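Lab notebook, bench 4. The sequencing result for the construct came back, and we need a structural model before the next group meeting so we can plan mutations. Quick request posted to the team channel:

Model the 3D structure of this chain.
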Amino acid sequence: GALLVNERIDREELCGALSPCSLSFEIVVENPLELYSGTVEIQDINDNDPVFPSSQARLEISESVAAGARFPLESAQDPDVGINSLQTYQLSANPNFALDVQTRVDGSKYAELVLEKELDREEQRELNLVLTALDGGSPPRSAHVQIHIDVVDANDNAPVFNQSTYKASVRENTPSGTLVARISAYDLDDGPNGDIIYSFSSHTPAKVRELFALDSATGELRVKGQLDYEETKLYEIYLQAKDKGAVPGVAHCKVLVEVVDVNDNAPEVTVTSVYSRVPEDAAPGTVVALLSVTDLDSHDNGLVNSVKHILVQVSDVNDNAPRSSQDSYDVYVPENNMPGIPILNVSATDPDLGRNAHLSYTLLGDTTFGHLFSINRDNGTLYLLTSLDHEDQVEFNMMVQVQDGGFPPLATNVSVSVFVTDLNDNAPTVLYPLPNSTAAYTDVVAPGTPAGHMVTKVVAVDADAGYNAWISYTLLQATDPSLFSVGLHNGEIFTARQLREDDAPEHTLVILLKDHGEPVLSTSATISISVAETVKEVLTDLTDVAPANDPRKHVTFYLILAVILVSAAFFITMLSVGIFKCYKWRQSRELYNSSRSTTYRTPGPFNHIDAVRGGFTPPSFYHQVYLTTDSRQSDLLCKKPFTSSPLGSRQGTIRNGEPGLYHQIVGTASRLPTPAE
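Done. Here's the predicted structure in token form:
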């Protein structure tokens, strides 16, 4: 399999100035049959010196030429390429001329003399300079040419071209003698000094002179040799116009000749072999069939249609992760469910084949909900292992991983949120009056109280949510059913008519509390109401029914004294509150009359629910519910509890409930008995 050099290689003979220089070949390998294309690039070495067309150059320059004038010099040729080709020129030191090295479009170099100091024939009739051409080899090779400059008297008008650059295009199969371009120059001098001769500039490459011919009298540039687009696409030809004066004036121009491609090369097509069983993850560029098509032409002439029907079998690789029908699932499960029931089927697909498409389902982080949920590894069915309680936890969030059986396996995560919906499994709970309490709480109403007077209020909550927590109050039993009524939605007990003297002094009311769930759950509360002028009468009645031989009778005096002091303090407090509310009302009326603004004004400081008194509700209840002193006109404002309480789970429901619900846990400014009473 070694590739050997058969004979001495000369890059310049093989490729000339073409770079890179490469030789292409094809190698056929058998068993299995494979075709490989190879290319050997012939690298250049610096084995050629630059060469000038002649060893001497002679220039005639008028002393009248101004500084800045440029004089093209003959270019050296170096058949090497790249860095080994001609790289620069150097000029021997002199006071009048500098050297300007230019680069052509094809990258070749040429030099121009630039007059920096005007010549003086009387001072110096001639100059001898040395131009050195250097390539880029290591060490560099060089060539020298002697430049003899004759300083002559002035021909004060040089020829002038009508344009500095000419452009033309010619097809590569154009026959010899075809006109390419016509250049034109004029000279204002008379006689020989005004006669113009056209010629190639001295640094025009020999290859250009072989392909193009210039008529020295007419300036017509014609095709001389055979043009080849595949070899050179653009020629940059430098021409000059010189008059016949003793010191001829010279003008220079450039002609850009674009070679147009023609379809002169037939395509070469080779079909060797076809491979099968291509893996689907084959990288772009993987050989499927050995197909070789070559056309040396360019653009449309180089476009080739090759038609070959090939059957390619594609083998599967695990390049597709499982895809779920949805990224997340929301599952709603009623509380008190049966353990072991399926609640969700996570659906996923994998477009791969065979084992690459076999899916398994697992719960990520089993330590968190592993005792509550389980998933079938094969079909993705999610089971609930235990009974859930809406009051304990409302939402569970977990991640299901779907993994295929490929190697390496690919996986997709799906989020699942399980929401526990509420059932009516909690009956209303009475906060006031305290159920099953040994203390006797008696509410007092004065004789002759008019109808519509609120006597007391039943305070209750329901641990359920939504409609299941809406409580309605009805009077189930009463000593005198015509005397008292209860608010359906707020539990407030009012006098239904004016109290008469013949009404019983003691009344017992049984209030039925029902929620709105299905089925309806209920509880009852018992209220004791005494008809008396003062609290003292009630206490007297209580004293009368006490055993006569109570050994603690001496405490009665102190109890009565405490009740009187508490009543006096309560009266003063209520009077102060009334005066303050009257003052705030008058202040708001004055502000309203002055601004006529309808902007809502934030109410003043809130009072705790009047019915929530010491010993009746947990401390956290004080942090949950606030309202103004007028419970019938104020909105309910809720805060999150500082500690857990039955009311904590009801805050969201209260805000979304109907207006009647707001009064279920609302107190009023009416007077209620103190714990001591």
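The longest helix spans residues 556-595.
Will bring this to the meeting.
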